[in-house]
């Protein structure tokens, strides 16, 4: 039976960065991915500059399909468009982007096994055994980077509840680059009021649009009908291939470690509840987990109490930010006619929100800035002066 210092299950952004970091620190690392790479991933594909700042390498230019400098926001009959001079995000196709991240891990010395699915995990006193559909492996520790339907997480905590999950349904709609630019150029199109705790989106890509709707699972009674109505209202064809995918909602207090196991990225629930984005937190948690594993290997200590320092670091780095994002999301959806109307009619509110997505401001600061100004902004919206 082959022996490794660490086995990483799942080759998404968190798994790629975690395995790369482990290998660079001298650990023997096995990265397991149940699909062949590149593999399809349902995602709008907006990667913020704040997220990219956590990488120690640059992104190849041919991966960047579009650049994002702003947003056009809609709510009912209100619409506003705000742009910044600095680039806010890049727009990518996740199959190519994730494959690039994995290539960086392999270059660092990670052993990659594609089309190999982890079936069971057995923590022992002196090791942890991972069984796949092909083989069994021994390791000192396992990093669970296998997403919202994580097998690894079952050995750490209870499954997500419906209220802790979002459902996204989306399609890629072919279009000429001229048509893409005519619809929206170097910005993203956001529609609030389409789904509870979520929104509809149109993201410009290379010769196609990424169009989708996402909302809290418990309120998405007929997501396909909601999505088709959204497409019709925007003038897009409904003759499309749709894909659906669950995402966790961040901001909840969850266990992310047990003996010889650490969860990262979506498997740990590290997703922004307001925007539904998790790539930034995948990068951060992947690196933090790897650094914790390196320290554990040096000290030969893999108990939950030892690994829990990782949870504390995540809480310090971004835990409070996700908590306040969840609070803001709940507040806005409790009073949508107030808050989403402001988002779709007040440039100052959106521009300040850009500072959050850019990593220049935390959600806590944004909430403290925004809430006291709501009466003034509403009055200004109703009675412009």
Number of helices: 12
The CATH superfamily title of the domain at 2-69 and 88-160 and 251-325: FAD/NAD(P)-binding domain
By secondary-structure content and strand pairing, the structural class works out as: alpha/beta
- What is the C-alpha radius of gyration, as a whole number of Å? 21 Å
Determine the fraction of residues in helical runs and give it as a percent range. 25-40%
Q: Report the uncertain regions.
A: none
Give an overview in words.
The protein is an alpha/beta fold. It has a domain of 216 residues: FAD/NAD(P)-binding domain (3-Layer(bba) Sandwich). It is 37% helix and 25% strand. It contains twelve helices and 18 strands. The strands form three sheets. Strands 1, 2, 8, 9, 10, 11, 17 and 18 form an eight-stranded mixed β-sheet that branches. It has a seven-stranded mixed β-sheet with strand order 6-5-13-14-15-12-16, sandwiched between helices. Helix 1 packs parallel to helix 3. The radius of gyration is 21 Å and the shape is globular. The model has no long low-confidence stretch (mean pLDDT 95).
């Amino acid at each position: 039976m082959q022996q490794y210092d660490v086995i990483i299950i799942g080759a998404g952004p968190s798994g790629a960065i975690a395995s790369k970091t482990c290998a660079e620190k001298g650990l023997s690392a096995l990265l397991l991915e149940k699909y062949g790479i590149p593999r399809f991933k349902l995602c709008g594909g907006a990667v913020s500059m704040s997220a990219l700042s956590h990488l120690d390498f640059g992104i190849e230019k041919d991966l960047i399909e579009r650049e994002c400098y702003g947003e056009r926001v809609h709510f009912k009959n209100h619409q506003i468009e705000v742009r910044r001079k600095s680039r806010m995000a890049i727009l990518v196709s996740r199959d190519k982007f994730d494959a690039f991240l994995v290539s960086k891990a392999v270059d660092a010395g990670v052993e990659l096994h594609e089309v190999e699915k982890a079936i069971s995990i057995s923590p022992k006193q002196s090791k942890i055994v991972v069984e796949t559909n092909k083989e069994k492996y021994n390791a000192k520790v396992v990093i669970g980077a296998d997403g919202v339907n994580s097998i690894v997480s079952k050995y750490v905590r209870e499954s997500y509840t419906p209220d802790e999950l979002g459902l996204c349904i989306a399609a890629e709609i072919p279009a000429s680059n001229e048509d893409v630019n005519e619809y929206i150029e170097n910005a993203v199109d956001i529609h609030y009021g389409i789904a509870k705790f979520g929104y509809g989106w149109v993201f410009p890509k290379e010769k196609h649009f990424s169009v989708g709707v996402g909302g809290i699972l418990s309120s998405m009674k007929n997501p396909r009908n909601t999505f088709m109505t959204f497409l019709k209202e925007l003038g897009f064809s409904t003759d499309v291939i749709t894909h659906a995918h669950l995402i966790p909602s961040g901001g909840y207090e969850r266990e992310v470690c047990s003996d010889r196991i650490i969860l990262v990225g979506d498997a740990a629930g590290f997703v922004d509840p307001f925007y539904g984005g998790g790539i930034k937190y995948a990068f951060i948690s992947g690196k933090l987990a790897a650094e914790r594993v390196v320290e554990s290997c040096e000290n030969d200590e893999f108990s939950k109490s030892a690994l829990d320092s990782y949870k504390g670091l995540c809480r310090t780095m971004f835990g409070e930010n996700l908590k306040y994002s969840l609070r803001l999301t709940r507040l806005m959806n409790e009073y949508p006619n107030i808050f989403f109307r402001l988002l779709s009619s007040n440039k100052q509110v959106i521009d300040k929100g850009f500072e959050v997505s850019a990593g220049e401001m935390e959600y806590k600061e944004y909430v403290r800035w925004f809430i006291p100004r709501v009466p003034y902004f509403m009055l200004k919206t109703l009675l412009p002066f």
